[in-house]
């Protein structure tokens, strides 16, 4: 029986740049950062308050998972903003939005009231969008 989800993958264009963004802009902690086989790098980050679900920052490269052609197609889709990095929860969407904007994080939607709470939409440095959500029961 599966009991939890430990990791989710975000495809990024450059792991070093993505690590800088998630660590120094969003305030995430580094989980693992190691070379596994050859040039494969296992790199994970998580929010300071919750290490239960870690995000794998992975570069699509030719190898066991992708052909050269499919890796290039995924990189192209990342640049177009076709992928989401996830929904990141916050206690105060407006405050967190202002803190992240001050750090240079780009947003495509400011904090906006939704049926489920308040949501802002940001973009990571690879082009992946993410939601910043304050749940309705925390407003």
Q: What is the radius of gyration computed over CA atoms, rounded to a whole number of angstroms? A: 16 Å
Could you list the spans in which at least 5 consecutive residues all have pLDDT below 50? none
Count of helical regions: 3
Proportion of residues in extended strands: 35-45%
- Overall geometry comes to globular
One letter per element, helices H and strands E, the order comes to EHEEEHEHEEE
Q: What is the averaged pLDDT score?
A: 94
What is this entry, summarized?
This protein has 139 residues and is an alpha/beta fold.
List keywords for this structure.
single chain, 139 residues, alpha/beta, four-stranded mixed β-sheet, 8 strands, globular
What this model shows, in words?
- The protein is an alpha/beta fold and 139 residues long.
- It is built from 3 helices and 8 strands, in the order βαβββαβαβββ.
- The protein has helices at residues 15-25, 68-79, 93-102, and strands spanning 7-11, 29-35, 41-46, 54-58, 84-89, 106-114, 117-123, 129-135.
- Strands 1-4-3-2 form a 4-stranded mixed beta sheet. Strands 5-8-7-6 form a 4-stranded mixed beta sheet.
- A hairpin with a 7-residue loop joins strand 3 and strand 4 (54-58).
- The protein starts with 6 loop residues before the first strand and ends with a strand.
Set out the fold topology.
Layout: E1 7-11, H1 15-25, E2 29-35, E3 41-46, E4 54-58, H2 68-79, E5 84-89, H3 93-102, E6 106-114, E7 117-123, E8 129-135
Parallel strand pairs: 1-4, 5-8
Antiparallel strand pairs: 2-3, 3-4, 6-7, 7-8
């Amino acid at each position: 029986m599966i009991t939890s989800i430990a990791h989710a993958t975000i495809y990024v264009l450059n792991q070093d740049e993505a690590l800088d963004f998630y660590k120094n802009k969003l305030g995430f902690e580094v989980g693992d950062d190691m070379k596994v086989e050859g040039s494969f790098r296992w790199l994970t980050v998580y929010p300071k308050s919750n290490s239960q679900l870690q995000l794998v920052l992975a570069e699509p490269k030719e190898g066991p998972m992708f052909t050269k052609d499919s890796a290039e197609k995924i990189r192209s889709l990342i640049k177009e903003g076709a992928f989401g990095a996830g929904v990141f929860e916050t206690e105060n969407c407006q405050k967190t939005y202002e803190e992240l904007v001050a750090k240079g994080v780009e947003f495509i939607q400011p904090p906006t009231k939704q049926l489920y709470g308040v949501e802002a939409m940001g973009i990571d440095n690879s082009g992946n969008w993410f939601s910043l959500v304050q749940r309705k029961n925390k407003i």
